[in-house]
Design goal:
Chain lengths: 239, 525
């Protein structure tokens, strides 16, 4: 595990959920604080150094997405959203509001633990400011703007590289279609999903063993794409 | 005195401009000129005829251009033609200066009669023309109104009605029109408006309008600071139900007041006809329907929440148990934890199915069609079902090339998940389930082939019905029998078809899903 216990704040109005999430997170080696509502959560985040917030959307006092916005107003602490609302539009909205990940209820504890690990690792890396990213057989060198697969340099077009770069800036994090289109093609093309599909396919043909069964550049249906996180297996979903 | 003189001058200038504009319109200067042209042309024809043959009855011939001018350009043009005709007749054919004999006198009389007849005829012809034009316009209006009322009766929400209203008003007024909900609320009602930028000044005016009072009959005009003036007015001055209309009047110009008056009159007319259509009642009914829909949504939402919240705790807690070292060390406890886990997962799937079924039954299913690669949803479905597919041999074959479809990947993934789930449920362990995706005659086909229980004759007719489960299976396997029915609805929402075939009992089953390929030209980069 990581040096010292990392501090997780679990925000949920259901005591039962808090109870098993606490148990699960403690088994995973984290220190857990609970909050039953939005204002308690805000107070905890202000008063204590919190490393990760696990936030349920349905809170009695403040709407979860509003709370997320408020948290993002002053801190970049990683936030994983828990929600029973599984709509894709909702997921997109939360990601754009600054959520790091979301888990749809009901979920497996192993999945939440895996997500927590990825998000926390990403956070610590962000501080280190690494200039290269290693994903299995793939190495992306941001400084040299090169991509290597099994030690061999890949020939990527500028658009393909840019697409990979945007995804690689947050490995493991889902980047929404709109965000990718905006970053790679510009604001005017945010609705041209077919560009994205075509370039993702081209990129997969270059970096995946079987572009039909991708292992690196993963699809999040109806939401966006993400790069598989190097530290974690991609765990099962139950949404 | 100077400013006053200046305004006077401007007023005259404006008046002159308006006159010019009118003159340029049919019935104006063009008509006068064309009348004269007709006169000259007729003279030319007559003079030419004079050399070839004996002269036709001159004054009678002149009636033709008079009627033509009347029909095309109205009374004024006809009168000019008539007078011009009389003038040239007297010049070329009769000598008006030497009225000597009774013959000449009768000719002059004939000329006067011609003038009177042609003026009367011109007037009558132009009036007929006006009436015909008016009838045509009315017919168009009635047709518009009919199309509009058809659209209204088809609309099932206030938003739909407002959209129809907006389009109707747009056709009527012939300018860009924005329609806002009942006075005070700023929500632009038409869905088409989502991509139209609404000028700030207009929204402000709409919100201000209730303060101006319901008698906003003349409306208020605001400048959008982009070179356009907007007229903002309640559609009807009698009821707030029809909302507030904002009309883009274009660049403020000299004829602005005239245009504004015309648009106001059109809106008032439209408001009256909306009242006659009993639209207020229709809107309120649609509102009730929308509220019922909301209530149903809320009910389903709360049921799903109420069932899922405890389920989340059970499922989550069971997975924590499996993780606990104490449990992991004890084989019996581990098995029990896995059982709780498995069964709660199954319960979760059934709850999801009930929710899906209720959404389908209430037509709450809305496919969000987007460009998507079928491989993506096929992989996601395989991933989701992988627990249930363990101990089955799964073979997947997908096309090498990129296929792009217009589909809702999320719905398609759920549909395929149901199909795979059924395949796993009704086929023995160690059997093969094969998933193939391929292009065939303009369609993308996905077939799921199992080596399981297959279908008998009864199954074949009943499969696809809600809550259907083959008699042979109801004792052996679990489930509500919603799977295939849900899959069919999801596939249909993606404009696809689904078909289940089987060679017979225990000979396996093939479920084939066909999705349309979009037009070729859209495949370009």
């Amino acid at each position: 595990m990581t040096d010292g216990e990392q501090h997780v704040l679990v925000v949920d109005d259901e005591a039962q959920i808090r109870q098993f999430v606490r148990a699960g997170m403690e088994l995973g080696g984290y220190r857990v604080t609970e909050a039953a509502n939005g204002s308690d959560a805000l107070r905890e985040i202000t008063l204590h150094p919190i490393d990760l917030v696990i936030l349920d959307l349905a809170l009695p006092d403040i709407d979860g997405s509003e709370l997320l916005e408020r948290i993002r107003g002053w801190t970049g602490v990683p936030v994983i959203i828990l929600s029973v609302r599984a709509g894709e539009a909702e997921k997109v909205k939360l990601l754009e509001l600054g959520a790091d990940d979301y888990v749809v209820k009901p979920f497996f504890m192993s999945e939440l633990l895996a997500r927590a690990k990825v998000v926390l690792r990403r956070q610590s890396e962000r501080k280190d400011g690494e200039s290269a990213l290693r994903l299995d057989r793939l190495v992306i060198d941001f400084a040299a703007r090169t991509v290597e697969l099994d030690g061999k340099r890949l020939n990527l077009t500028p658009k393909e590289y840019r697409l990979l770069q945007v995804l690689a800036q947050h490995p493991g994090k889902v980047i929404t279609h709109q965000n990718l289109l905006k970053s790679v093609w510009g604001q005017a093309h945010v609705n041209n999903t077919q560009y994205l599909r075509i370039f993702v396919r081209k990129l997969r043909q270059k970096i995946e063993v079987d572009p039909n069964r991708p292992k690196i550049l993963l699809t999040e249906l109806g939401v966006g794409y993400r790069l598989s996180d190097p530290t974690s297996r991609d765990h099962a979903r139950l949404d | 005195m100077l400013p006053a003189a200046k305004t006077d001058f401007k007023k005259y200038l404006d008046a002159a401009r308006i006159w010019m504009r009118r003159a340029m319109a049919p019935g104006g200067v063009t008509g006068i000129i064309m009348g004269l042209v007709f006169v000259i042309a007729t003279d030319a024809v007559l003079l030419l005829a004079k050399y070839i043959e004996e002269l036709p009855p001159v004054s009678l011939t002149f009636l033709i251009p008079v009627v033509l001018a009347a029909i095309r350009w109205g009374t004024l043009s006809a009168a000019i033609t008539a007078i011009g005709g009389a003038g040239t007749i007297s010049l070329f054919y009769y000598n008006p200066f030497y009225i000597t004999g009774p013959e000449e006198r009768s000719r002059v009389l004939g000329l006067i009669v011609f003038l009177i007849v042609s003026l009367v005829l011109g007037y009558l012809a132009s009036r007929t023309r006006r009436d015909a034009a008016r009838a045509l316009k009315r017919e168009n209006e009635i047709r518009d109104l009919y199309t509009f009322s058809q659209r209204i009766s088809a609309a099932n929400s206030p938003a739909g009605i407002f959209e129809a209203m907006q389009q109707h008003l747009e056709t009527l007024v012939g300018r860009k029109v924005l329609l806002f909900d009942s006075l005070g609320t700023l929500e632009a009602k038409s869905e088409r408006l989502s991509d139209v930028e609404i000028p700030q000044a207009v929204t402000e005016a709409v919100s201000k309008l209730p303060a101006v009072g319901i008698d906003g009959s003349k409306g208020i005009v605001v400048d959008d600071h982009r070179g356009s003036a907007w007229l903002v007015r309640p559609v009807s001055t009698n009821t707030a139900d029809f909302g507030v209309i904002a009309v883009d009047l274009g660049r403020p110009s000299e004829v602005f007041d005239e245009l504004r008056a015309r648009v106001v009159a059109l809106i008032a007319d439209a408001g009256l006809s909306l009242e006659r259509l009993g639209l207020a009642r229709t809107i309120s009914e649609a509102r009730t329907r929308a509220e019922t829909e909301q209530f149903r949504e809320a009910l389903i939402g709360s049921v799903s929440h109420e069932l899922r919240t405890p389920l989340s705790s059970i499922l989550g807690a069971s997975t924590v148990l499996s993780l606990a070292p104490e449990v992991a060390a004890n084989a019996r406890l581990k098995k029990l934890a896995a059982l709780v886990h498995q069964e709660s997962e199954r319960l979760n799937v059934e709850i999801q199915n009930i929710l899906d079924a209720s959404r389908i039954s209430s037509n709450g299913l809305q496919a969000k069609l987007e460009w998507a690669e079928p491989a993506d949803f096929i992989n996601a479905a395989l991933q989701r079902c992988r627990n249930r597919l363990t101990s089955r041999i799964v073979e997947v074959a997908l096309p090498e090339e990129l296929v792009l479809l217009r589909i809702d990947s999320v719905l398609m993934e759920r549909a395929l998940g149901q199909i795979l789930d059924n395949a796993a449920k009704y086929s023995p362990p160690e059997s093969t389930i094969s998933v193939r995706g391929y292009l065939e005659s303009g369609q993308f086909v996905i077939s799921v082939i199992d080596q399981g229980a297959g279908l008998d004759a009864d199954d074949r007719t009943l499969l696809g019905q809600k809550f259907f489960r083959g008699n042979r299976h109801s004792q052996v396997t679990s489930g509500l029998g919603l799977g295939f029915w849900i899959a069919s609805a999801f596939v249909a929402a993606n404009n696809g078809t689904i078909e289940a075939t089987s060679e017979g009992v225990n000979k396996g089953m093939t479920v084939t899903v066909r999705l349309p390929l979009p037009m070729k030209e859209n495949d370009k980069e």
